[in-house]
């Protein structure tokens, strides 16, 4: 058991028969009345984000979760298949458990979150940034580096993102997996 003073971003708690992770929290001590903690909680099972207010000092049940590195193998009709980097066991996850499935590439290492009591996979998180090659984009023109104009580009995984005009076919880009956006071009 923990109290509201133990809150931190990323802490997993059990609430109303569901597992939540704390996205953000704020301790509030008004001039009149008791202190409380305002939180944003994300469900690890459904992915839904809720706002919840706790009175200061309330006891909460902390959920024990474990992150394990897995390597992405392939995708088929069953789902996305991963291999544990330590025990070499394979498991299949459905697409709803993966935060950015369109950016997954074979051989990529991801973290899969497991509930320790049930050993059930809760979600799959890609690293914050991935490097992917552009397979197709319209050609850019020399001198188009000053404007903020964007054009569509198809990556090696089949995902489509918006990129600046100076990006060409074969360029390797750093992509933010949390926002699915272009960050920078990686020099070869």
List the helices and strands and how they pair.
Elements: E1 2-3, E2 12-15, E3 18-28, E4 36-43, E5 49-55, E6 59-62, E7 65-75, E8 80-84, E9 90-93, E10 109-115, E11 120-125, E12 129-137, E13 150-155, E14 160-164, E15 172-176, E16 181-186
Antiparallel strand pairs: 1-6, 2-3, 2-6, 3-4, 4-5, 7-8, 7-10, 8-9, 10-11, 12-13, 12-15, 13-14, 15-16
Mean pLDDT score: 88
Number of beta strands: 16
What structural class do the secondary elements suggest? mainly beta
Number of helical stretches of at least 4 residues: 0
Beta-strand percentage? over 45%
Keywords:
3 domains, about 190 residues, SH3 type barrels, five-stranded antiparallel β-sheet, 16 strands, six-stranded antiparallel β-sheet, mainly beta, OB fold (Dihydrolipoamide Acetyltransferase, E2P)
């Amino acid at each position: 058991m923990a109290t509201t003073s133990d809150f931190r971003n990323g802490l997993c708690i059990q609430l109303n028969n569901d597992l939540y992770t704390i996205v953000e929290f704020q301790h509030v001590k008004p001039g009149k009345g008791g202190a409380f903690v305002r939180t944003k909680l994300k469900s690890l099972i459904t992915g839904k984000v809720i706002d919840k207010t706790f009175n200061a000092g309330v006891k909460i049940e902390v959920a024990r979760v474990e992150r394990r590195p897995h390597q992405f193998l392939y995708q088929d009709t069953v789902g996305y298949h991963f291999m544990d980097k330590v025990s070499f066991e394979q498991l299949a996850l459905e697409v709803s458990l993966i935060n950015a499935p369109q950016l997954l590439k074979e051989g990529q290492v991801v973290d899969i979150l497991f509930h320790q009591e049930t050993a059930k996979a809760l979600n799959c998180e890609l690293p914050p940034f991935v490097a992917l090659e552009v397979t197709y984009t319209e050609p850019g023109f020399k001198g188009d580096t000053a404007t903020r104009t964007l054009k569509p580009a198809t990556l090696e995984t089949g995902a489509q993102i918006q990129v600046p005009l100076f990006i060409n076919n074969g360029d390797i880009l750093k992509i933010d997996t949390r926002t699915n956006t272009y960050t920078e071009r990686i020099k070869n």
